[in-house]
Amino acid sequence: MTKLVESMDRGDVAGSDLSSSEFLSPQKAALGPNNNGRGDSSGVPEYDIVKATQYGIYARCEQLLNEGFDVNQRDAENITLLHWAAINCRMEIVKLYIQRGAIVDSIGGELNSSPLHWATRQGHLNVVVYLMLHGADPTLRDGEGCSAIHLASQFGYTSIVAYLLAKGISPDMQDRSGMTPIMWAACRTHCADPARLILTFGASTSIQDRIKQNTALHWAIQSKNSTVFLLLVNSNASLDIPNDTGETAFNMLKQMKQYDWISKRAVDNVLNKAERNGKRSWFHDYHKDEDLKTWVTRSLPFVVIYALGLIFSASIELGWKLLLLFAVYLTFRGVGKVVCDDKFMSIFPISVYLATKFWMYVVWFFYIAPEIPLYATVGFVSLSTLLWYNFLRAWRGDPGVIKMSAEERHKTIISLAEEDGFDPKHFCTTCLVRKPLRSKHCSICNRCVARFDHHCPWLSNCVGWKNHKYFIGYLLSLVIMCIACVVGSFMLWNKVLGVDWTFIDVMRYQPWVNFMMAQAVVHGGWVLVLLICQLYQILWLGLTTNERLNWTRYSYFGAGKGNRNHGHNPKLFHRGVVQNFADFFEIGFMHPKRIDWMRAWVPQQMDEDEQYSDREPFLRDHRDNYQYV
Q: What is the rounded distance in angstroms from the CA atom of residue 455 to the CA atom of residue 461?
């Protein structure tokens, strides 16, 4: 049994030697009878009940129970039959034993564990669910002082962690030594999902264990776990809490000499941010004023473009202009360093766009409109109205954010787990929602978006199911507006300089007009390319930008079981150019296929009208003390 304990502690199920009362590894179990937990009713081997349980020979187990074997009888190592059925994931036998009166929370083995502990160690979610539905207590501790949530966190079983938390287990539950689930994830699990899930449920990052007084950050650094370390830092975990030796996470990072587990740049960014927040200087309060920093970031492009326009239009020598341009660059860079933070790139691009549009309007109405016919300005204003309508709908509109209340999130996790349909790949551990077909979690907006296309920094918003068509309208109207600015400039030059004007004449006439026309040409060019790419993906491919870049990663593009090609089908949603056009823009007389992408789960190879399943996950009627918070 010692080998069993060591194997279980490592999570290495294949390393156990078998005897009549030892753990049966999945590899060896495959050599035995039918692996589904019932076995074959014909020709039942004459195994004892322990080995029959390990091999999953349902008929033999049932036969021995009918002959009077006590379902709660323990073997020589104080282990019950339910333990063996749980650790080997013999679901039918687990059900049989519980129906015959097996004690769900029986304690056994060298680790003094319950069947729930054994099932959790091996990641058998279906067994964990069944045991808890029949009264298993997830708060029980084993001989090492760990409950099920601590074991699931150690071994990185995201689905079990989610289920236990949704059933009401505290994310800050401490084991005998004071370790919390996030601490175990920090020192044992080098993947993001379990830790992210625990943090999303509100786990505290400042709790210290009882032995070393370490926080989760201490454990992440000691274990060289860069994934969980960055998650904790992004969750604003404190670097200043000392452990029993007086070391803080900040000091541990400062003393690092090797960066074999994390990049030096990442460590420097964390240290610089911590040092900057700790200094008390005349601009310390400014650094803390997020509203002021946001206001400066938004205003900066307006000031810079105005300064550039003044320099270009100034009647000074070229050398002085170059010197002033360099001064503007240094000022911009200096201010940028002061205001630049994690939100900078989500604010600055759209501010550049708004500033450019503002000064284009100034140039049009103060320089161009007085010199050209009225109808041109009327057309310009009409196009501008169309542009602003689409821009506002794409910028401020809902892209299709998948929203759920806390209770709905917990119910979803529970129902998925109890229906044996919990796949971490289709579940967002940040938003705690089941991800519909074609959806994606945006790391910038920190939310899941239905039929996600991309995050647009020029909108400071995601482009998804509900605002994608307005985004296309915005691109189209923006290209037309840029063309209108260029045409207006030519009309101005023809009126003022005559039809035989030269490039030198234009450069000397009005630098402000030239400056803004150049911007219209540049912006109009790349926006036109973006529009063409978008229309190609929508009409000719039936894909989103995200799917076009990552389609090989999505299971719904993979070959089905009946597909002999065993390849991928990137045109799963392609219905022809005309029909794609009708579906995307929802043109009624063209009979578009209307799909609620917030409720589309799996593509079904069925009749076209039933291609997408919008069935809500079934929620069991059974309730217990750990159903949901």
A: 6
